[in-house]
Design brief:
The chain is an alpha/beta fold and about 400 residues long. It folds into three domains: about 5-45 and about 95-170 and about 260-330, FAD/NAD(P)-binding domain (3-Layer(bba) Sandwich); about 65-95 and about 170-260, D-Amino Acid Oxidase, Chain A, domain 2; about 335-395, no CATH class. It contains ten helices and 16 strands. Strands 1, 2, 6, 7, 8, 9, 15 and 16 form an eight-stranded mixed sheet that branches. A hairpin with a 4-residue loop joins strand 12 and strand 13. Helix 1 runs parallel beside helix 6 (about 290-310) and helix 9 crosses helix 10. It is globular and about 60 Å long. The termini are far apart. The structure holds flavin-adenine dinucleotide (FAD).
């Protein structure tokens, strides 16, 4: 039996939702989490790459959901020229179908009630104020009352639209992705590979994330604006036919990745968004697991504070957005500007980038070193980044 009222209802039990639910419960709120699928984590729509540093604050690493430990990233330019970045054991390829369930278990341990096969269908309003959620559970229509709704329902979020937010993405800010899990191939399980170039993947990249020495997630993400004449599947099929002609695909994924950033709009009276729903994704890499967990934590903490204070209006809930901006949001806006540059990069520039990375001594490699050197090469980049930084500060 579920109760008639919970302080907080979280919609979606992905990484953002389960972490939001956990932190809201830890802060003393009663929490119900709704997941439309029969099990969290499936279907997997992800290449499953994360950094150890990123997930460690939220979960103890367990081999049951680690498919591979990554020691290097291999960047391959349009000509086949390549460079390695060493990151000794700092990366993981996950088994998300297990990982997502473990995150839910951690939420449940804090008192969260999870309902699977529970599909949210709308928000309930009393005198214009959001006061609950309508959903079907196992096909039966029902509803629950609450003071706060956290929409963690992924890239296609409907919660935002129900709450009257403008969550539409421009074509250039939505990467369309296709991925095969390939088996019967020969891969090195110690490194993830990234292939760049306008022939292979215009405005994006092809990834090979190993799951063992004979299987890998091989996928492509390209910006919607670049997929008008030829879709990502055609690009990926061409790549796979050449690189892994004998492979068998055991799993196919189609999905979208938002490459925008979180807007003020995504916080309204009684409703906040987290994770992909709030576009909390690195606009350059498309990585959103860790970002979603961080956003989830901040959303859950804010919801618990609101419950304690008995204040659920936008003014109070905006502290979530301010915390997000401080933690990752400002940086995400800078990344967004860089992504715009990345979209227009020529093959020559990609080659230069790979050649440049080759020159960085292994012991010196860090993002700040890379950035400093890249700016020396391209001063206009500095202007773009500075502009984004100033704009993000002015908007506060
Ligand atoms: C092809 C591809 C590859 C990717 N590779 C990587 C990668 O390697 N590393 C990385 O960090 N990120 C990657 N991402 C992005 C990453 O998958 C997402 O950023 C991450 O899953 C976001 O977590 P989330 O909790 O916000 O959303 P999701 O994981 O999408 O979870 C949302 C949940 O909400 C549920 N839901 C939706 N609507 C409702 C509803 N109405 N009622 C109830 N439940 C609902 C869904 O069933 C789902 O379980 C990739 C994405 C794609 C498409």
């Amino acid at each position: 039996m579920i109760r008639k009222f919970y302080d907080v209802v979280v919609i979606g039990a992905g990484p953002a939702g389960s972490v939001a639910a956990r932190y809201a419960a830890m802060g003393g709120a009663s929490v119900l989490m709704l997941e439309r699928d029969r099990e969290p984590g499936i279907p997997v729509r992800c290449a499953e790459g994360v950094s150890v540093n990123g997930i460690e604050p939220y979960i103890d690493i367990d081999e049951s959901w680690v498919a591979a430990r990554i020691n290097h990233a291999k960047l391959v330019g349009p000509s086949g020229n390549s460079a390695f970045l060493r990151n000794n054991g700092a990366g993981l390829v996950l088994e998300r179908r297990i990982f997502d369930v473990r995150l839910c278990e951690l939420a449940i341990a804090q008192g969260v009630r999870l309902l699977t096969k529970a599909n949210a269908t709308g928000l309930i309003r009393k005198n214009g104020v959001v006061s609950g959620v309508e959903f079907t559970h196992d096909g039966v229509e029902t509803s629950v009352a609450c003071n706060i709704v956290i929409g963690a329902d992924g890239v296609e979020s409907r919660v935002g639209r129900w709450a009257g937010m403008d969550t539409a993405l421009a074509l250039k800010d939505l990467d369309t992705c296709v991925q095969y899990t390939l088996d019967g191939i020969d891969v090195n399980p110690e490194y993830c590979e990234f292939q760049f170039g306008n022939e292979i993947s215009p405005g994006g990249y092809v990834w090979i994330f190993p799951k063992s020495n004979h299987s890998a997630n091989v996928g492509i993400g390209i910006a919607g604006v670049k997929a008008k004449d030829k879709g990502p599947k055609e690009y990926l099929d061409t790549f796979v036919a050449k690189r892994f002609p004998e492979a068998s695909a055991t799993y196919t994924v189609y999905g979208g990745v938002p490459t925008s950033y979180m807007k003020d709009e995504y916080v309204q009276d009684n409703v906040i968004l987290a994770g992909d729903a709030a576009r909390q994704v690195n606009p350059i890499t498309g990585g959103g697991i860790v970002q979603g967990m961080i956003g989830g934590q901040l959303a859950g903490e804010t919801a618990a504070e609101a419950v304690k204070a008995g204040k659920f209006n936008r003014r109070f809930l905006m502290s979530y957005k301010r915390k997000w901006d401080k933690r990752l949001g400002d940086n995400q806006k800078v990344m967004f500007r860089l992504k715009e540059r990345f979209l227009g990069m020529t093959d020559g520039k990609f080659e230069n980038l790979v050649n440049f990375i080759k020159t960085i001594p292994e012991d010196k490699f860090s993002m700040s070193y890379l950035f400093k050197e890249a700016v020396k090469e391209d001063p206009k980049l500095m202007m773009d980044v500075a502009k984004s930084f100033i704009l993000s500060k002015l908007k506060k």
